[in-house]
Amino acid sequence: MLHQRYYKDYGLAISGLVMHHKVDPLEYNREVDDALPLDGLITPNPELRKLLEDLDTTRVKPWLFTNAYITHGQRVVKLLGIDDLFEGITFCDYSKLPFICKPHREMYEKAEAEAGASSTKECYFVGMSNMCEGLWLLLTHNFEMTHMPEPVEKASEFQIRDLDSLRPIFPQFFKTSQ
């Protein structure tokens, strides 16, 4: 499918649509991402909220990092009931062409700069895609959250099945061990 090919080739399907089909990315965002009927599909997640509230923010800065445009990213975390638990957001800016998006190195550098990280060694990226493959060489810590059987060849330094699995790996970043 075209969507999957563009996602694989460019990291974001909209990048291929803009490049090859002259789609207006802001109009696409309005008509597709922002028009998705997410109310009721995405609901508050008390377990996720509890985990994020338990982060020791004197040691770690919670920062959103998305390939979506800002309006969609903000909408999703608001529906999840966790929008107040992050200090900022790095997003794919559809108003600036060409796009900078994951899995490209420049997007990670953008996130690091916007979050105020003084070095890559201070950053921990947690994602749900193996599109980060190869970036583990750039990043000190990279996680892939997977719901599939563990692959033979790992795409990241750590692979976890859920966010609570971060506690035993990095107990120093949480206020409690539960």
Strand sequence of the main sheet, in spatial order?
3-4-5
Helices and strands, in N-to-C order?
Answer: HHHHEHEHEEEH
The biggest sheet, with number of strands, parallel, antiparallel or mixed sense and barrel status, is: 3 strands, parallel
Radius of gyration: 17 Å
Q: What is the percentage of strand-forming residues?
A: 5-15%
Helix count, DSSP H or I runs of 4 or more residues: 7
Quaternary structure state of the chains depicted: single chain
- End-to-end Cα distance, whole Å, is 43 Å
Q: Low-confidence parts, pLDDT < 50 over ≥5 residues? A: 131-148
SSE class: alpha/beta
Instruction: Specify the helix fraction band.
Output: 25-40%
What's the mean pLDDT score?
81
Global morphology: globular
Q: Using DSSP, what is the number of strands?
A: 5
Quickly describe the structure.
The chain has 178 residues and is α/β, with parallel strands linked by helices. The chain has seven helices and five strands, in the order ααααβαβαβββα. The protein has a three-stranded parallel β-sheet, with no helix packed on it. Strands 1-2 form a two-stranded parallel sheet.
Give a structural overview.
- The protein has helices at 2-10, 13-21, 25-33, 46-53, 70-80, 105-115, 166-169; strands at residues 64-65, 89-90, 124-127, 141-145, 158-160.
- By secondary structure, the chain is of the alpha/beta class.
- Helix 1 crosses helix 2 (13-21).
- The strands form two sheets. It has a three-stranded parallel sheet, with no helix packed on it. A two-stranded parallel ribbon has the order 1-2.
